[in-house]
Amino acid sequence: MRTRVTTALASAAGVLLASAAVAVALPAGAAAAGCSVKYAVSSQWQGGFNADVAVTNLGDPLTSWAVTWTFGAGQTVTQAWNATVTQSGSAVTARNASYNGSVATNQSVSFGFSGSSGSTNPAPASFAVNGVTCTGATTPTTPPTTPPTTPPTTPPSGAADITVNAATKYQTVDGFGAATPIWGGAWSTAETQTLVGLGAGQLGLSIVRTGISPVSGEWPTQVNALKTAKSSGSGVKILASPWTAPAAWKTNNSRVNGGKLKTDYYDDYAGHLNSYVQYMRGQGVPIDVTSVQNEPDWHPDYDSMDWSGTELRTFVRDQGAKVQNTKLMVAEAVNMNYSYTDPTLNDASARNNIGYIGGHLYGTEDSGRLKPYTLAEQNNKPVWMTEWNFHEADGNGSTIWGNPSNQAVWDETLDDIMRTVHKSMEANWNAYIWWYGKRYYSFIGDGEAAYGTSAGVPLKRGYAFSQFAKYVRPGYQRVALAKSTKASPLEVTAYQGGGKTTLVVLNRSNSAVSNAVLQAPQTITRAEHYLTSRTDNAVAQPTSVNGSQVTVSVPARSISTVVLTH
Predict the structure, then answer these.
(1) Domain 175-474 annotated CATH 3.30.870.10
(2) In this predicted structure, what is the pLDDT of residue 18?
(3) What is the domain class of 35-134 according to CATH?
(4) Angle 319-324-328 (CA atoms, 0-180°, nearest 5)?
(5) Distance from first CA to last CA of the chain, Å, rounded?
(6) What is the DSSP letter of 380?
(7) Closest Cα to residue 468, out of 431, 511, 436?
(8) What is the pLDDT of residues 159-185, one digit of tens each?
(9) Which numeric CATH code is attached to 479-565?
(10) CB–CB of 92/126 below 8 Å?
(11) Annotated domain spans of the chain
(12) pLDDT tens readout for residues 456-472
């Protein structure tokens, strides 16, 4: 179980990478040993850092492992996860946990740790595994009885199991994201960089959702995090959502329990939204999308406001043009209820004042609306799923969220969260935005002792979500594909953009799909395969390329991304 990191993250530095080939000592009778180690500092602050270590076994299967290295600048390990780490002076040993000692040929295992550091933090110069130092190649442990044959540089071509059809195009992807805290608190600089960055140990979110407080004095709270997101990510969009207008403008004279916006305050509310956008713009934070209302159909005992679809239509038709330097969104109903958006889409004047259709995932699948929104597509309005929060694996709550290999957490992540991301893409939706990015059940931990997470440290759900967010970038377009019988257990979507073909592959079955052949539309110059499973966090996997085909293996109960550069 990952233990809580007690050092707070204050700022982040650049990503440090080091790779080394490492010989592995194997049991007697083994034929060959070898592996590669990738060491990455995922975040760094004054006096401390987080690091990830990934070991790929290139030799015969391992039943246990011990990775050793020496720090060269006085660094000290303070906490660790997915391994038991001990240190004597500058020498460090990381031994497998009870659940990840077995590593098959060409498979990887990863672990991470937090450490303290001085003014410099260089990567270790070399590694060893099970007592054998780096050799740079796979080494026979017994002499071969016959001279080895030279393998072909590329595998023979064959019938494809997944064929990408770039001629058939679907939606353009706007991105994948999560929300900042809505009531109090903000992400630190380091936390924001972990969430939106594209480096090792970062999650690649491309949309950040934030709230518009009815009190303008609260607007500065999120400025630093939003500025960091804009500067640290790649094409990050900001979505701003109001939960309520000021109490005095509402029929119930309260911020909470719903209540409608009085019609004679419609122009004031438009001015309020515009003032927020211009304030943020002046702070160096352009607001790309501004929602008219979060959940107009939900009236809880916290900030909320009630609208009908007709009232929303009237507001955006008559007042929408007053909100400048942004694009409006209607209407973020709880379950993508079309009655809150159809009136605007059916009114040309109102429709011209909006840029996006929004809705939440709560109950949407059960209502039969996790599917293409035909009216929005006909009117060229991108559909964003702007909120979902689901965490039932813990029952009444427990520290399972801090255990990166907990079975219940992984099952819920794969079967509920990632499945709905996949289905939303198949539904031609243009964006998928989770609830809070920082929470014990979310993408990075919040440090709550009761749930066992470490503040700012990526969680299993974050690594899984990054399989979409980090590699399917804004502007990519989903394209068609066909699958063979062999690939039928896999749930796959394909995208093109940036000179790449990218496939996201869910294998929710209990069986691996080995040596699956992927057929790309063009010759492949480079193939990358990254995998997240119960025991792996976005770990690189081996690939074999032959012309426009690449061969990969997909473990059971996993999500992975294959990036093909043309």
Answers:
(1) no
(2) 46
(3) mainly beta
(4) 65
(5) 41
(6) T
(7) 431
(8) 999 999 999 999 999 999 999 999 989
(9) 2.60.40.1180
(10) no
(11) 35-134, 175-474, 479-565
(12) 999 999 999 999 999 99
